[in-house]
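Give me structure tokens for this 85-residue protein.
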Amino acid sequence: MTDIPLSVLQAPRSAWNQINAGFTNLFSDLAVESLSLYGSSKPGSFSVIEHLVRFKLKTELPPGAAEHLPAGAKKGDSLGMINVN
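Here you go.
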């Protein structure tokens, strides 16, 4: 079994949008598959979505990005991650 890094990111919406925009610019052949969805959009409620993201790295990783991907990931590698929001 491979060790899988686990990370949690809590950020204001504007910061998250900036981080996400920079991170997704590293990808090509991006595919997102919803695995599960639970919750409500009613006021006072919350939702949880679990999704699988598959992608190919289209560029070398900038400093700090490698810690969020498998060790040794490099340009041209096909990778995937499971996200829970």
